[in-house]
Amino acid sequence: MACSEHRAAQAPTAGRCVIGVDLGGTKTAAGAVGADGRVRFIEEIPTLNRAGGEAVLDATATLVRRLADRLEADGGGPVSAVGVGAAGVVDAASGVVISSTDAISDWAGTNIATGLATRTSLTASVINDVHAHALGEAWQGAGRDAGSMLLASIGTGVGGSLINNGIPLSGARSVAGHIGHIASPDAAGLPCSCGRAGHVEAIASGPALHQHFLRLGGDASIRDARAVCALASEAGAAGQDSTGHRAAVDAVTTAARATGQALGGLANVLDPDVIVVGGGLAAAGPLWWDPLLKAGRAELMDPLCDIPIIGARLGPASAIIGAARHAFNSQHTSDGP
Ligand SMILES: [Zn+2]
User: Fold this and answer.
1) Which of 23, 27, 184, 237 could cross-link with 258 by S-S, CB 3.0 to 4.6 Å?
2) What distance in angstroms lies between residue 275's CA and the mean position of ligand 1's atoms?
């Protein structure tokens, strides 16, 4: 079934573990995950991002088999399936990467599901990595008790996913969730990674925040968003009121405001039970969170004023857990209703 958003996922039943894989542009992490969501053994390898899709699948299959063998040797029984959360736009029905950035060369067109199934002899299923992140939080993290959850992941890029009854909304063309690519007043005229201009990601991602800091006259020796946030957190203390400090505060505030405004507007469209915010910038503290919440709440229609906007809880394992949940969901689908 290509578009599964009208169904509700069944909770995994006790039994075999699956392997969840978080396949990103720089690293691939995998873990054995039980039906209770507990993760046993996590291993990580560098993604062979210049070697092409087939080489990436070779290395991923080796990692999956190693974890499966380790689980079996540990008495955890044979693994029943592998689920992958992968970078790029992924057609979950076929397991094929439809499009991707150049983070992994020759990635578009790769059939991850068939490629891994052939190499591992396991049933394989695939979703986009942000959907996997969201599915993990919805199953075991900040959205655990929610029927519907909008997740925003704010880091190198700005991504999102709407989970409804345990299933991510993939959309008619597998593109749903690209919350970074809606218009933002704070980003007017700024080039976006998608080739257009004025989108949320062009002001709110980590690299965009850093670029904005430089445009405001910030010191070029401050190399990334994390350093800008650290500088901003010093501002206001005695002797810490330089142009650089003010530029850092302005860049962080603007990025957070653009994120919050977008999330508030999306809440008006989607009315989720909860909004969960993760990704690297979510660790930036009140300097980022306060303007995000203020801007988000300012957008909300009155009946939505109490909607919780909270931080993600699972950390780096969330996409592994979510990819595993997708594998469990797929098993139920193939087993029939
Ligand atoms: Zn864009």
Assistant:
1) 184
2) 21
